[in-house]
Design goal:
One of its GO terms (biological process) is 'de novo' UMP biosynthetic process. Helix content is about 45%, strand content about 15%. The protein is of the alpha/beta class. The protein is globular and about 45 Å long. Bound molecules: the ligand O=c1ccn([C@@H]2O[C@H](COP(=O)(O)O)[C@@H](O)[C@H]2O)c(=O)[nH]1. The site of the ligand O=c1ccn([C@@H]2O[C@H](COP(=O)(O)O)[C@@H](O)[C@H]2O)c(=O)[nH]1 has 15 residues, from loops.
Length: about 260
Amino acid sequence: MANHSSVRQRTSLGGGSLDEARRRLVFPLDYANLDEARAAATRIAPSIGVLKVGLELFVREGPRAVEIGKSLGLDVFLDLKLHDIPETVARAVAGAAALGVRYLTVHAAGGTEMLRRAANEAARSQDMILLAVTVLTSLDDGDLAAQGVQGSASEHVVRLAQLARGAGVHGFVASPHEVPALREALGRGELIVTPGIRLGPGAGGAQGEDQKRIATPSAAISAGADLLVVGRPIRDAADPLTTARSIVQEIAHTLHPPRP
Ligand SMILES: O=c1ccn([C@@H]2O[C@H](COP(=O)(O)O)[C@@H](O)[C@H]2O)c(=O)[nH]1
C-alpha cells in the first residue's frame, strides 16, 4: 500500500512554471469515436499533461482508447468510476492496471471493503494511482438531500474522502469548492483532482452546463487542487489549442505570480 505522502510526490508536479502548469491539466477524451478522439488528442497534446478516457469513449472503443494517450507519451487517466461489489471491482482494477493507465477512478460510495480491495489491487502496480470520486461535481446540496444525505456537499465530500483514505486510497476527485476542507481534513500529502472547471466570470454561475459546483482554473489552483480536468471549455472552443494554452498560462501565473 502506498504511504501517506507518496501519491502526491509520485505525480512529480513541481518543476518549471509553464511545464509544471501543463502537467496539471487533464483533458478528457469525451468523443464519440477513436478517430475524433485521436485527432483532438494529437492537436492538444503539447499543452496538457494527462489524457482522460471516460465512459463515453471506453464503452464504444475499449482499451484502444487508452493507446491514444500512451502513443502520445501522455499519462492516461481511466475514469471508469468503478462501483460494484468488492470482488468485481478488484478484478476490474487489475484489468486497468494491465492496460498501463496512470490514474483510475472508483466511487468512494462503494464502501470500505470495495475501496480496500481496490487499493490493495492498485498497490500491486508500481505506477497506477487510484482516485476515489467523492461527490460528483454535477450534484449540489439539494441533490444530496433528495438522496437522504445529511449536511452539505462539502461535508459529504470530506466524509467520503476520509472513508476512502481509511481504506488505503490517497487520491480524491472533488470540486474546487471542497479542496480547502479536504486539505484541512487530510493534509498536504494527498492528491486532489478537480473537474467542474469553467473559464472566466461565468464560472460563478451561468456557464456550468450540467456541472453545479464549478470554479475557474485559478480559483481551483489557489484552493490547493493538484490536477484540473477541463473538458468542454477546451473541446468546444473555437480554437482548442489556444484555449488550452491560456489555461496553462493561468495555472502558471496562479502557481508563481509574476513579481511586481
Ligand atoms: O465529479 C466528477 C467526476 C468526473 N467528471 C468528469 O470530468 C469531465 C468534466 O468535463 P467538462 O466537460 O469539463 O464538464 C467529464 O469527463 C466528467 O465525466 C466530472 O465532471 N465530475
